[in-house]
Design goal:
The chain contains six helices and four strands. It has about 160 residues and is of the alpha+beta class. The N and C termini lie far apart (about 50 Å).
């Protein structure tokens, strides 16, 4: 097992449902563009992040699903809270696997989960971004933009009126 990696097959379904609830309420899907010396053209990546001020949640996430824990610096602290923020995250193939297993249980972020799985499907044959063919690079950028738009979308007022009486 690599650092941060976890074998997911042994994890009970109830734990995936619990994780999905945390993604729905405290987490986010991120598609972003990275740049480094090895890949000066940059590349797109996927990450799932869950943030919370209670470190016990981070311990449970890491021990159950692998991944990594970071904390905000003092300059990054949320202005409405004096408490330390912690962030658990998984990326790339791990994030894809987590999304696939949580998807049946997602409520608010189900569309986002479906979209990031479509994004990750573009990596099946093309991991080397120095030789991307066709429109794959622009497709990945489009997925990034679509995810951004989904996050801005809210529930329509008429949908609420039909449900709440």
């Amino acid at each position: 097992m690599m650092d941060g990696m976890k074998t997911y097959d042994a994890i009970p379904q109830i734990e995936w449902a619990r994780l999905a609830a945390y993604i729905d309420g405290e987490g986010c899907f991120l598609i972003f563009r990275c740049h480094n010396k090895k890949r000066p053209r940059g590349y797109h990546a996927l990450k799932i992040v869950i943030g919370n001020t209670d470190f016990r949640l981070m311990v449970w996430l890491k021990s159950s699903f692998g991944g990594f824990i970071n904390r905000s610096t003092k300059t990054e602290k949320h202005k409405l809270s004096k408490r330390q923020m912690y962030y658990w995250h998984v990326g790339s193939a791990m994030a894809e696997d987590v999304t696939r297993r949580c998807l049946p249980y997602l409520i608010m972020k189900k569309e986002q989960g479906e979209l990031v799985l479509q994004f990750r499907a573009t990596f099946k044959d093309y991991h080397d971004t120095t030789r991307l063919i066709g429109n794959i690079e622009s497709d990945r950028e489009n997925f990034k933009n679509q995810l951004h738009e989904l996050k801005r979308k809210s529930v329509a007022e008429e949908d609420i009126s039909e449900t709440v009486q």
